[in-house]
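Render this sequence as a predicted structure.
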Amino acid sequence: MIAKIFPITKIVGKNDSFDYLIPAEFEPFIKSGALVSIPFGNRKIRGIVEKIVTDESENTFKLKSILGANKEFVLPSKYLDIARWVADYYLCSLGDTIGMFLPPETIKTRKQKSENSTQEKELHEIKLSDDQEDIFQSISKTFKERNSKPVLIHGVTGSGKTEIYIKLIEQAINQGKQAIVLVPEIMLAPQTVERLTKYFGDRVLLLHSGLSKGEKSSSFFQFYQNEKPIIIGPRSALLVPTENIGLIVIDEEQEDSYKQEQTPRYHAVDLAKKIAETIGANLVMGTATPRIETYHETVNQKSCYYRLAERHGEAKIPQSKIIDLRMEMKAKNYSPLSLRLQADIKTTLEKKKQVLLFLNRRGLSTFVSCRDCGHIVMCDNCQIPMVCHIYDKQGVLSCHHCDAKKPLPAICPECGSPRIKHFGAGADRIEQEVNLLFPEARTLLVTADTIKSKKDYAEIYQKIKKHEVDIVIGTQMIAKGLDIPNVDLVGIVSADTGLHLPQYRSAERTFQLITQVSGRAGRRNDQGEVIVQSYWPESLAIVAATLNNYELFYDAEILEREKYNYPPFCKLIRIVASSENEAKAHLEIEKISVYLRELKIGFIGPAKCFFARINKKYRYHIIIKDDKINSRKDWSFLTKEFPTATLDVDPTDLL
């Protein structure tokens, strides 16, 4: 017998599947969707069986044989359809997209012992407010009517979206179904697990890249085999292929981390929509700051919309105040913390409350430059400014793209002047300033440099929650969804970071970030306060965020998108050509542009990327604005002629 098999690897060409002989010992296990080991070239890789071919007369080639078969896993046929959709929509190989839905490459797995047994702990019962109950009942009615539209819960920070999720999960489980809960960052997973475990005990699983292979395999198979009904995690939690899913919840749907940065470059929100549509599951998204595209869908009635305009219980939306940093300079305050923010930190600490200071920039500074000749220390690999960090009390220059390191120079490497210093302020610099101004306060720095493992995430969350820290200083990691009851003051040190980057979503990202960070203040009975520092205090994104007025921002932004033909009014595809030889990268993008012109496909460019060199590779790109290209077949010329070019459909990053 012969099996047609999809190799789990990138295939350049017309064929997605290849023929293999089925050895007699594997025949009982080989069927459509079976996971097998196969020889492919000089490699041994995994494959998924497409179908069995019983008529072997037409096959005149000498075929290789299947090497092994996994008896525990079969890919459901509906997920093969989903994988085909991902390959066609995101213009990539079917082998890559099927591989998304396969178990980790470990043979034997053991079930993990749960630390949250329902027999050991008394489970809580969820109680909803009147507003929450109304929304829950309305969504439940929508689900019963088999309305296939996604649901958006647009609720201000602290409005109680999670409680509605929990009731919907409970409803799905009572119907014998399973539920997936997506969070944008690994750091949020322990908090979400903790909250859901109070209501569902040991029926909750966790799956993310920070787990060991054995832990990932255990969580995967327990959910795949329907042994436990709830799985929580970032994108990877969506990729366990079971047709018993009743509910998919996407918390903080606006986050860019839901977009995969490597092939296949899918967006988890769009993939979740396809999975829900294909297997008949319900999809609920929640956020305080919907993506412009998501909110536009609700305006056009492509999804069901529910609004939570007030915070849950006695909590109130925090008061926000914009500080014009230009006035601070005139007042001769050269600290990165304004005089108002310094005073409010002092008052908050006296009340035994916590402070959260946010700056979306790691390190001690933004760059290091010579005051005499103007030389800026650049990364040799990426040609972007290196950032000063403090490691073991020593100054070190670090590249935030390739992680290259250099010692902090004592003199300018260009002119020899000793007048070389760091400029701007990163999170490390803010920590230094806080320790200087408030030496008695317990500070904690939360950045990608201080969190290296899953244990770090959980420990930091518990440390903040138990008030073992007075002032938390951090980057984006602290902006998303953290529920810290005792935070009374949030200081956004520089609201302008990213506002003027050359991409169409800069204002939207600024609005989202300010709103999300502000939401960490006053999560319980105290109202809380937010100080927003800016050199551009008149910016609509900053003003609308401090007013907590999403509609004000959306109404202005959607007009700009329509005027200049950006999503949701067009489809974007980004093509990047990269090479260690700049001339080669430039020539490749020029050739691609010739092909596109011949096909009468509109595009912007070609041009150097904003980050023109990363990891020793020069980068050029083209941005396509076109809705004509709908499948991989339209791009066969590109993958064949330029196999190293990168295609990104619906890119979130144009830099």
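Summary. Confidence is low (pLDDT under 50) at residues 112-120. The chain has five domains: 2-99, 130-308, 319-364+425-560, 365-424, 572-649.
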